[in-house]
Amino acid sequence: MTIAAEEPRIQQVVGDLNRKLLINGEWVDAASNRTFDSFNPATEEKLASVAHGEAEDITRAVRAARAAFDDDAPWRTMPHGQRGRIIHKLGDLILDHLEEFALLESLDNGKPYAVAKAADVPLAADMFHYMSGWATKIEGNTIPMSTARPEAYLGFTLREPVGVCGQIIPWNFPLLMAAWKLAPALAAGCTLILKPAEQTPLSALLLGELAMQAGLPPGVLNIVTGYGDAGAALAAHPDVDKVAFTGSTEVGKEIVQAAAGNLKKVTLELGGKSPNIVFADADLDKAIAGSAHAIFFNQGECCVAGSRLYVEESIYDQVVEGVAEQARNIKVGNGLDLTTDMGPLVSQEQFDRVSGYIASGRDDGANIIGGSRVGDRGYFVGPTILTGTREEMKAVQEEIFGPVVAAAPFNADKDILPTANNTNYGLGAGVFTRDIGKAYRTARRLRAGTVWVNTWNVFDPALPFGGYKESGWGREMGHAVFNNYMENKTVITDLS
């Protein structure tokens, strides 16, 4: 693929996209008639203008979702098998539009088109396919009672959808994060208001089109594009029963405060500063490649990025040089170029943030390998390794959310786990070793929701994902996700 050759295709895909708000099954303008622009981070050029949703639009969407959740509404009365088939069809439609989604993800987010096509879009479809099967498998229990006459009473539980859910997603995996949120909530029988990130609204709008084609009744899925004020209005809305948020820990804390008004349920998937531990007995080829992938994948814009690399002293120089060599071989460029390995950061704000952390590391005495701007247009930062770091450095303690890893050696005679766990976060972690016992013991002691052993960034819809500490509340994916979207009701009946 050449960028120039794709220009007509780009114009067609973006031009055909409906850029209004999806409310109650219809595409409508924002109440204010305002719009905002979405930009291509590789070129800094405008891609599209989309509706600027605000608090009034959130209220309209909540009202539609509430009506769609009523007891006699089609979504509530629909047989569960039919609900599952609609969700599965949406997964099929995503695959039918694989190239359009991959193009939108690359244009709007900056990530390589080839990566989006091979990973982001198929994984989003997988999520809908997997969750569609759960629509018929959410069950209660019949529970024997310990009363004086247990045969006189029937006690059982029902699992019911929590209700109207607000879902706020980030810009690093726009389509995939939408799928992680929407698919289980739909399978549970909830109705939804999706608020995509203002930096990357386009794939959510195409997803809305396909959801209607799949047969979702009006009001079941509503999409409001806009800025943080729209998300804040959604989190605080008194008629929203639950809010799910993926993003920064700072904003997550604001979501919790906003949700306090009606004590709505909250789940949060937040930041990370993931430790990656490489022992001297590791397969070094695998450890070096895995450590580079852990931090440089998706431009480092991953909440689970392996951004703290701890390597046993005897192999430290070899591993750091190996990761540096991997970094030198990464081609940074426009995501539409099929030879690109790493695209731009998502925005000027993110470019300034990452550049600031690199400068902070340099000012604190770290050695910088890489770390330069690539080109003079677009938000490109090359893969970066900080060596000679200390634990108290800002670049070691705080989430950077870019292709920057802080490396440090550790002594085999000292326990590395206290250092690895010395963070407010607990989302991801990794360990590279050939010793399965050591791997298991290390994984057990790492305070993180996901621990990878001799790999990184492997996910599956059946595996729960979430964080410890300030990395969040609750779990995405797997059967555990339904704890987020279901209420348990106990029913006790006197049979005498």
Secondary structure layout plus pairing:
Layout: H1 3-16, E1 21-23, E2 26-28, E3 35-40, E4 45-51, H2 55-69, H3 74-77, H4 80-96, H5 98-109, H6 113-134, E5 153-161, E6 164-168, H7 174-188, E7 191-195, H8 202-214, E8 221-223, H9 228-236, E9 242-246, H10 249-259, E10 265-269, E11 275-278, H11 284-296, E12 308-312, H12 313-328, H13 348-363, E13 367-370, E14 384-387, H14 394-397, E15 404-410, H15 417-420, E16 428-432, H16 436-445, E17 450-453, E18 472-473, H17 482-485, E19 486-494
Parallel strand pairs: 6-7, 6-9, 7-8, 9-10, 11-12, 11-16, 12-15, 14-15, 16-17
Antiparallel strand pairs: 1-2, 3-4, 5-19, 10-18, 13-14
Folded structure, characterized:
The structure is a single chain. By secondary structure, the chain is of the alpha/beta class. It folds into two domains: 3-270 and 471-491, 3-Layer(aba) Sandwich (Aldehyde Dehydrogenase, Chain A, domain 1); 275-460, Aldehyde Dehydrogenase, Chain A, domain 2, CATH 3.40.309. Helices cover 40% and strands 19% of the residues. It has a seven-stranded mixed beta sheet, with helices on both faces. Strands 8-7-6-9-10-18 form a six-stranded mixed beta sheet, sandwiched between helices. Helix 4 (80-96) runs antiparallel to helix 6 (113-134), helix 5 packs across helix 6 (113-134) and helix 6 runs parallel beside helix 7 (174-188). The protein starts with a helix and ends with a strand. The mean pLDDT is 96.
